[in-house]
């Protein structure tokens, strides 16, 4: 469930960006008393996400607008399906149309792509998770969309969990030093993840007491060796250039988690239209 207090801030910024001084077209063509009914139509098949956001877009513009869902977030639709209906002031609907569609299309595109990745590994004991490679300002919505597609969330932000990456290691001097430094300063409840590129680094991360070990851009044979070396002593995450063509083979190496940046950083918007009846 999306928190309306949080999403309202995002929506208001988007509306202000789209019409900082009103809608010069709508305000000069549409009679203030005009009322219309519109339908949101799927122009492709996939997973829908963001209906709460769409409703809030219109409600923030006009509290009297009526919004009816024909499905719920996480449902699959086919080409031509009517996703939702909106009724009320023509001016308000037109002013909110682009913002509503932009967010709904973006979120549904992410949900649909996530579902494709999850479908590839559905028979294997592995989780598909997102990354922080999100659109600035939209991370909350995009990570929600991942969940609606059947995926799970990695850390939400830099404050959520420790992830010691290559530049941290270089700056600290070694994995051992980086882990020791952070362990001495964080609560015992916070897990520590270390990014590794070689078996030597995997061994060092294990000795240092890492809770999660990321295998970054390793080939399949090296991943299998790393999983065998770790031997359940830490959670194993695979990351780096994961695609629909490679995700199954990566999952077969025995990793626990596969993080996929493309779920959010390069997803195609889901095609949806708003048409007046």
Explain this structure to me?
- The chain is an alpha/beta fold and 277 residues long.
- The chain folds into two domains: 4-112 and 268-276, Quinolinate phosphoribosyl transferase, N-terminal domain (Aldehyde Oxidoreductase, domain 3); 119-265, Alpha-Beta Barrel (TIM Barrel), CATH 3.20.20.70.
- It is built from eleven helices and twelve strands.
- It has helices spanning 4-18, 26-29, 51-61, 90-120, 139-148, 166-172, 175-183, 199-208, 220-230, 247-251, 262-265; strands at 35-42, 46-47, 66-69, 76-77, 82-89, 127-129, 162-164, 192-196, 212-216, 235-239, 257-259, 272-276.
- The strands form three sheets. A six-stranded parallel sheet has the order 6-11-10-9-8-7.
- Helix 1 (4-18) crosses helix 3 (51-61).
- The chain is elongated and about 70 Å long.
Question: What is this entry, summarized?
Answer:
The protein is of the alpha/beta class and 277 residues long. It has helices spanning 4-18, 26-29, 51-61, 90-120, 139-148, 166-172, 175-183, 199-208, 220-230, 247-251, 262-265; strands at residues 35-42, 46-47, 66-69, 76-77, 82-89, 127-129, 162-164, 192-196, 212-216, 235-239, 257-259, 272-276.
- Report the count of strand segments: 12
Low-confidence stretches: none
Please give the radius of gyration in angstroms. 23 Å
Specify the number of helices: 11
Please tell me the overall pLDDT.
97
CATH superfamily of the largest domain: Aldolase class I
CATH class category name of the largest domain: Alpha Beta
Distance between the termini: 30 Å
CATH topology of the largest domain: TIM Barrel
Write out the strand line-up for the largest beta sheet, numbering strands in chain order: 6-11-10-9-8-7
Categorize the overall geometry. Answer: elongated
């Amino acid at each position: 469930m999306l928190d309306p207090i949080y999403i309202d801030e995002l929506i208001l910024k988007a509306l202000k960006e789209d019409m900082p001084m009103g809608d010069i077209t709508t305000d000069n063509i549409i009679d203030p008393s005009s009322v219309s009914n519109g339908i949101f139509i799927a122009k492709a098949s996939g997973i829908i996400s963001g209906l709460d956001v769409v409703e809030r877009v219109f409600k923030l513009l006009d509290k009297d607008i009526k919004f009816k869902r024909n499905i719920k977030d996480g449902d699959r639709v086919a080409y031509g399906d009517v996703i939702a209906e909106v009724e009320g002031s023509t001016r308000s609907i037109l002013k909110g149309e682009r913002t509503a569609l932009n967010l709904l299309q973006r979120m549904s595109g992410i949900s649909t792509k996530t579902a494709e990745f999850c479908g590839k590994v559905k028979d294997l004991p592995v989780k598909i998770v997102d990354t922080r490679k999100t659109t600035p300002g939209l991370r909350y919505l995009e990570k929600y969309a991942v969940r609606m597609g059947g995926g799970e969330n990695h850390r939400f932000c830099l404050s959520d969990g420790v992830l010691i990456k290559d530049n941290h290691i270089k700056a600290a001097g070694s994995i051992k030093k980086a882990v020791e430094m952070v362990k001495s300063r964080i609560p015992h409840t916070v897990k520590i993840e270390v990014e590794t590129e070689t078996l030597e680094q995997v061994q060092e991360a294990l000795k240092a007491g890492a809770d999660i070990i990321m295998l970054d851009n390793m080939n399949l044979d090296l991943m299998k060796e790393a999983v065998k070396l770790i031997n359940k002593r830490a959670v194993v995450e695979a990351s780096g250039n994961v695609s629909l063509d490679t995700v199954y083979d990566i999952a077969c190496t025995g990793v626990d988690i596969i993080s996929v940046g493309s779920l959010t950083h390069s997803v195609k918007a889901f095609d949806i239209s708003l048409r007046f009846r």
